[in-house]
Design a protein that fits this description.
Order of helices and strands: EHHEHHHEHEHHHH
Shape: globular
Largest sheet: 4 strands, parallel
Strand content: 5-15%
Number of helices: 10
Distance between the termini: 33 Å
CATH class of the largest domain: Alpha Beta
CATH superfamily of the largest domain: 5'-nuclease
Number of domains: 2
């Protein structure tokens, strides 16, 4: 059974990074977890950077995520928040990971999750690039490439090849993972 990853709001904020994480989760590469608060934080961050006329679209994205992954919502973690010793603003995230039995928290905000706070709960913390590289090493590169190729073929506005998707969009957020996939794809030709 795939292990579970609690995705923090900052891992879900960048669109292409969110899409790759969700596509891998949907394909069963890992089990995704989050809270309503995390999804709210993600939506708020996006809304702060887009025109108001696109706010409905952001809300639809969050709703689609809830619908696609009904098992992802963590509840009942609130009573654990005060016992967490990481940064106060992210204690709800660690509490949710503990409640869900998540193996890892995927976040770019590593400083708010010191090892001394997470280790007692057997929760690892990884930035998205490390997490995706770890998935690449654990899983079949052929299978993950198949998922990525399907994603690239779904993109129509603008249409992208897998190499374009990796080089132009994912490389900024997950550079090592993008390079691993590019190396693999290029080695097949």
């Amino acid at each position: 059974m795939p292990f579970s990853a609690l995705l923090d709001a900052d891992a879900l904020y960048p669109a292409y990074q969110r899409d790759i994480l969700l596509r891998f989760a949907y394909a069963g590469v890992f089990q995704v977890r989050w809270t309503d608060q995390i999804l709210h934080e993600m939506a708020r961050s996006i809304k702060n950077r887009v025109p108001e006329e696109r706010h409905d679209r952001v809300d639809r994205t969050a709703a689609q995520m809830r619908e696609a992954f009904p098992e992802a919502i963590v509840r009942g973690h609130e009573n654990l928040i005060t016992s967490m010793t990481n940064h106060p603003k992210d204690r709800h995230v660690l509490a949710a990971a503990v409640q869900a039995g998540a193996d890892v928290i995927v976040t770019s905000n590593l400083k708010d999750f010191p090892r001394s706070s997470c280790e007692p709960h057997d929760v690892d913390v990884q930035p998205p690039d490390d997490f995706l590289c770890f998935q690449w090493e654990l899983r079949s590169p052929e299978h993950l490439t198949y998922i990525l190729e399907g994603w690239a073929s779904d993109l129509a506005n603008p249409p992208l090849t897998l190499e374009n998707l990796l080089e132009e969009h994912l490389h900024r957020r997950v550079p090592r993972f993008s390079e691993m996939v590019l190396d693999f794809v290029r080695s097949r030709t």
